[in-house]
Amino acid sequence: MYNVFVNDTPIIITSSLKKINNFPVYLLKDVVIEEIVYKLQHEKINGIILFSDNLEKDWVYFLKNFKVIAAAGGLVLNANEDILFIFRNGIWDLPKGRIEKGEAIETAAIREVEEECGIANLTIIQPLITTYHIFFQNGMKLKKTYWFLMTSDYDKKLTPQTEEGITKVAFKNEVDVTKALKNTYGNIKIVYNTYKELP
């Protein structure tokens, strides 16, 4: 199953016949992807399911409708297992950014977290999940973000990257994380839930 967000509304691409949230169901091979995206932008729909009888093949077909932009980021823990959040455009988010040409995914993830948060001493523990969302910038694009679980023992003042529109950076405990998740993106909830489900 793949979740692709348009703003905060999911397109769920699945080979399962199980009904999810009473979302309308379409056969992926019968739809025009641009029309589905337009529908999600302009109609009051909570989500759409695209059913596939060959998930991997249909996923490749789905991706061909977009210019794919690769990004990488981190869910960063400190010694207390607080989680590092950034605040941008009035929404709590996790640090991430585009992968530069020729750059390794892990290198990009660490660099972006360092740049956006003014943090150091980052260590990648493991890959977490890859998320997808559609955005519009000179046409319709799909951002594919590789997420990593990271730690840092950095205990100095954090500095938000204000030129990227980030106004706050903070490690949040479990209570504050719960509040932040009420004002974040669907993809960030998926990243957090993936972390919480780790053994």
Total discrete domains:
2
Rg computed from alpha carbons, rounded to a whole number of angstroms: 18 Å
What's the CATH class label of the largest domain? Alpha Beta
Question: Helicity, in percent?
Answer: 25-40%
Globular, elongated, flat, extended or rod-shaped: what is the shape? globular
Task: Give the number of helices.
Answer: 5
Mean pLDDT: 96
Spatial arrangement of strands, main beta sheet: 3-4-2-1-9-10-5-8
Q: What is the helix/strand order?
A: EEEHEHEEEEHEEEHH
Query: Separation of termini?
Result: 21 Å
Q: Biggest sheet, in brief?
A: 8 strands, mixed
CATH architecture of the largest domain: Alpha-Beta Complex
CATH fold node name of the largest domain: Nucleoside Triphosphate Pyrophosphohydrolase
Structural class: alpha/beta
Total count of strands: 11
Approximately what portion of the residues adopt beta-strand conformation?
35-45%
Contiguous uncertain segments of 5+ residues: none
The CATH superfamily of the largest domain is identified as Nucleoside Triphosphate Pyrophosphohydrolase
In a nutshell, what does this entry contain?
With 199 residues, this protein is of the alpha/beta class. It contains five helices and eleven strands.
Q: Which terms summarize this structure?
A:
single chain; alpha/beta; Nucleoside Triphosphate Pyrophosphohydrolase; 2 domains; three-stranded antiparallel sheet; 5 helices
Can you offer a commentary on this structure?
There is one protein chain. The chain has helices spanning 33-42, 55-63, 105-117, 174-180, 186-196, and strands spanning 2-6, 9-14, 25-27, 48-51, 67-77, 83-88, 91-93, 96-98, 122-136, 140-152, 166-172. The protein is α/β, with parallel strands linked by helices and 199 residues long. The protein folds into two domains: 2-63, no CATH class; 67-196, Nucleoside Triphosphate Pyrophosphohydrolase (Alpha-Beta Complex). The strands form two sheets. Strands 3-4-2-1-9-10-5-8 form an eight-stranded mixed β-sheet, with helices on both faces. The longest helix is centred in the middle third of the chain and has 13 residues, at 105-117. It is globular and about 55 Å long. The mean pLDDT is 96.
